[in-house]
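Quick one, C-alpha cells below. Sequence please?
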C-alpha cells in the first residue's frame, strides 16, 4: 500500500508509474474518498471536543450524540470505499525496471552454463522409467496437477533442502517452518490476495487461506510490531498450494505446474536504505545455488507490465530444461520496499527513528522445478541419471538407475 500523503505530494510521479506499469487506477476517486474521510474525521473530532466540554444532559448534548451516531457509519463507509481504491495501487517501480507490457518484454541480463541442445527424454519419461514420479495414481487420488514423488527422488528432495540450507544459513538466514494456513487479513497484507484471489485455496468453514509460498506466512510474523534488530533474514520450508486458476491447458504435462509442491523461500526484513543491497544478496544466493548444481541458467529483469502488485523490482532466474528445449523460471526475487509493511504495520526503531521496514523475498529452491532440471540435464544414454556432485554427500548416491 502506498502512503496517501506521498501520492498527493508526488502525483505526477505516481501517474508516470501507473502508465509504465499499464495500470488503470482512478486517482481522482481515491483522492476524493480521502478528502471525504478527512472532512468526516474533522467534524467528528470537533463534535467530540465540544461534547467533552458540556456538563449534564441538555439539548445540545443530545443533538451532538445524534450527530455522532449519524456520522460514524458514514466515516466507516467512506473508509471502506477509500480502502477498496487504495489497495488497487501498485508499488512504485525502481528506476532501472525495464519498460514493457508482458513477459515477452522481460530483459535477459546474462546467461551462464552449457546448454544441451539434444532434447533427450523429458522428466515424465525419466520419472516413470526410474520409478521416481507417479502421476496417474495421483490423478486417481487427488485429480489433475498432483503427483507422487518416490524413492530416490524423495531423497534428492531432502538433499536439495540440506544443500540449500547450508548455503543460505551462512548468510544469516534463520531456518523456519511457517504455518501453511493463515488468516485472510494476514494474507491480504502480502498484496497477492486482492479481491479473494482466484488462485488461492480458501477454507470452507474458517476464514483461512492456504499459502502459495512461505513468503505469505513469514511476512506477517512481525505484523503490528516494531523490530529493533535488522536485518531479520529467514529461510522458510513449506508445502505450497495453488489452484493455478489462470493456467488451464498450460503446462499440464508432468510436475512443472502443480497444485502442491515443496519450496524453500528466503525472506528479509530490513531498513529502507539497505533493501537494494539485500536484493543483490538474495539474487547472488540464487545464482550460487543453481551454479553449484552445474545447471545452465539465465538472469531476467522483469519488465514493468509483468510485475506483481507489491513488487518494486523483480529478478527471475530461469533454468534450462532440455525436455522442452527452453529456459523455465525456477527462481524469482522481489524487493517490495515498504508496500507490504504498511499494510501490516511492521516498523523498526533505530535511536529516535521509527519507520516502515522494507520486505524482500526470493526462491531458494522450488523442489519440483529443480528436480525436473536435474533429471533432464543429468540424464545419461543408458537411461540413468547422474546426481549433481554437491548433492552426493547429502543423499549418499552418485546416480539413479533401474
Amino acid at each position: 500500500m502506498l502512503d496517501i500523503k506521498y501520492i498527493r505530494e508526488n502525483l505526477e510521479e505516481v501517474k508516470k508509474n501507473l502508465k509504465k506499469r499499464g495500470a488503470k487506477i482512478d486517482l481522482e476517486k481515491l483522492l476524493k474518498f480521502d478528502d471525504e474521510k478527512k472532512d468526516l474525521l474533522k467534524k467528528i473530532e470537533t463534535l467530540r471536543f465540544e461534547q467533552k466540554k458540556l456538563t449534564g444532559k441538555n439539548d445540545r448534548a443530545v443533538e451532538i450524540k445524534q450527530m455522532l451516531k449519524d456520522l460514524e457509519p458514514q466515516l466507516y463507509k467512506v473508509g471502506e470505499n477509500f480502502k477498496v481504491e487504495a489497495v488497487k495501487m501498485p508499488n512504485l517501480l525502481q528506476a532501472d525496471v525495464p519498460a514493457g507490457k508482458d513477459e515477452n518484454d522481460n530483459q535477459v541480463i546474462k546467461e551462464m552454463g552449457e546448454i544441451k541442445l539434444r532434447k533427450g527424454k523429458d522428466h515424465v519419461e525419466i520419472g516413470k522409467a526410474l520409478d521416481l514420479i507417479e502421476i496417474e495414481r495421483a490423478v486417481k487420488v487427488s485429480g489433475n496437477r498432483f503427483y507422487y514423488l518416490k524413492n530416490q527422488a524423495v531423497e534428492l528432495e531432502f538433499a536439495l533442502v540440506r544443500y540449500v540450507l547450508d548455503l543460505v544459513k551462512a548468510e544469516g538466514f534463520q531456518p523456519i517452518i511457517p504455518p501453511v494456513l493463515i488468516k485472510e487479513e494476514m494474507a491480504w497484507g502480502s498484496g497477492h490476495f486482492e479481491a479473494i484471489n482466484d488462485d488461492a485455496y480458501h477454507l470452507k468453514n474458517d476464514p483461512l487461506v492456504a499459502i502459495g509460498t512461505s513468503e505469505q506466512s513469514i511476512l506477517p510474523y512481525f505484523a503490528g510490531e516494531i523490530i529493533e534488530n535488522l536485518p531479520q533474514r529467514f529461510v522458510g520450508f513449506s508445502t505450497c498450494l495453488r489452484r493455478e486458476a489462470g493456467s488451464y491447458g498450460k503446462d499440464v504435462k508432468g510436475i512443472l505446474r502443480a497444485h502442491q509442491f515443496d519450496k524453500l523461500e528466503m525472506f528479509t526484513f530490513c531498513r529502507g536504505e539497505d533493501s537494494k543491497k539485500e536484493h543483490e544478496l538474495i539474487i547472488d544466493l540464487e545464482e550460487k545455488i543453481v551454479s553449484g548444481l552445474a545447471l545452465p541458467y539465465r538472469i531476467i529483469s522483469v519488465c514493468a507490465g509483468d510485475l506483481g502488485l507489491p513488487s518494486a523490482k523483480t529478478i527471475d532466474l530461469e533454468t534450462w530444461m532440455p525436455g522442452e528445449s527452453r529456459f523455465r523460471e525456477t527462481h524469482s526475487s522481489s524487493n517490495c520496499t515498504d508496500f507490504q509493511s504498511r499494510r501490516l504495520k511492521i516498523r523498526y526503531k533505530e535511536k529516535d527513528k521509527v519507520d516502515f521496514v522494507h520486505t524482500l523475498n526470493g526462491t531458494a529452491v522450488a523442489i519440483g522445478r529443480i528436480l525436473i532440471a536435474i533429471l533432464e540435464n543429468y540424464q545419461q544414454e543408458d537411461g540413468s541419471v547422474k546426481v549433481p556432485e554437491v548433492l552426493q554427500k547429502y543423499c549418499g548416491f552418485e546416480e539413479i538407475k533401474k
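The mean pLDDT is 93. The two ends are 53 Å apart (CA to CA).
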